[in-house]
Write the structure tokens for this entry.
Amino acid sequence: MTDIRHTPDPRNIDIDRVGIKGLLYPIVLRDKQNDTQHTTAEISFYVDLPRQFKGTHMSRFVDILNKFRAKIDLRAIDEILDHARQQFSASTARIELTFPYFIMKSAPVTRSEGLMSYRCTILAETRSEGRSSSTVTVRVPVTSVCPCSKEIADRGAHNQRGIVTLAARTNRFVWIEELIAAVERSASYEIFTNLRREDEKFITEHAYDNPAFVEDIVRDVADKLMADPRIDWFSVESENWESLHNHNSYACVEMDLSRLRQQS
């Protein structure tokens, strides 16, 4: 049958990314506590399309995922992308996997256990000239006590829930748990799924003793990552859902540590 996708296109325009989005697929991740973790990712998978072709073969993306279904994890991503470039005769291939990552956490006083979920993304890209990159993003819910409120109020201070989004490119393997911990240690306190009254008392008092603006949180996370030689680049954003104002508070720090090391 005639394959219209390989017929010439008169507009003479290269397409940077073409492929599939929003495909739910099971994946396997390295888990610091349990060796491996099975979860479900929403996958976007792309290649570039040269100007001489009208279209691409969308079904081939699913075929590739099916071929690697037994080992879709971080250790196989480069192999998956190289296979995609060969199958499509493409110069670049890119895959994005967004998934819930689960960590069993114990409450600070009663040690009550509960699974905490974190929304994570792995973005990887490879090019024919040998360049490849991967970025891991973790979104970590936190609690913070407003330092200004604590300073000026006679009774208490207002608490805020927030989300910290940390993206990092590394030169060696870094556990997802390590990135999450870097964020949680920088907030007034971390979030749990299973707490008793004794735990709530402890967390309330501990957070009160450790007030933090969004500016404090991103600076503390940045300070930790700058000291880690495995991190080449990072972006950390902190957004608090304000409890007193009709807006959110926000701060961001981005650093290319590999470039700074070259300059030093």
